[in-house]
Amino acid sequence: MWPHGEAETGFFYGFPSINGVSMKTADEYYGPPSDPDAIERAVTADQSRTMYQTHLEGRFAGLTPQVARTQTCIYTASPDSGFIIDQHPACPGVLVVSPCSGHGFKHSAAIGEAVAARLLNQAQTVDLSAFSLARFAASTGKY
């Protein structure tokens, strides 16, 4: 992650190349919810150019705007970008667990352990209250 501004869009993330020739970079878009079956998956040349100019240009020695490959990735996110681990309010016996796509991947072992303990009615070693659905009710009046 490389933050370079105050705006919600003022950061990008990247991964070093395996072959020493290229690198994988990405930014994120937090817009209105979208239907995964209707989203435009093609990345235009203008979008690639904007990505380079906004996030990469001047930050990496030798990096050029040449694009090797593009891909649109879709991920899940809650309204506050936090995880959700809570009983479903209308469906007893259903536990909602949303670690929010890639962001939650690095936390998956801890989330899995905490959820398993909860489902097995074991003592909780981690306070999961921060991931409650109730936090949305406080700001919107509904879950």
Q: What's the arrangement of secondary structure elements?
A:
Elements: E1 2-3, E2 11-15, E3 24-26, H1 45-56, E4 84-87, E5 95-98, H2 101-105, H3 108-119, H4 134-140
Antiparallel strand pairs: 1-2, 2-3, 4-5
Overview of the molecule:
The chain is an alpha+beta fold and 143 residues long. It has helices at residues 45-56, 101-105, 108-119, 134-140, and strands at 2-3, 11-15, 24-26, 84-87, 95-98. It has four helices and five strands; from the N terminus they run βββαββααα. Strands 1-2-3 form a three-stranded antiparallel beta sheet, covered by helices on one side. Strands 4-5 form a two-stranded antiparallel sheet. The model has no long low-confidence stretch (mean pLDDT 83).
> What low-confidence regions span 5 or more consecutive residues with pLDDT below 50?
none
Main sheet: strand order? 1-2-3
Q: What is the 3D form?
A: elongated
Instruction: Note the total helix count.
Output: 4
Proportion of residues in helical segments: 25-40%
Query: How big is the Rg?
Result: 19 Å
Number of E-type strands: 5
Instruction: Summarize model confidence as the mean pLDDT.
Output: 83
Percent of residues in beta strands: 5-15%
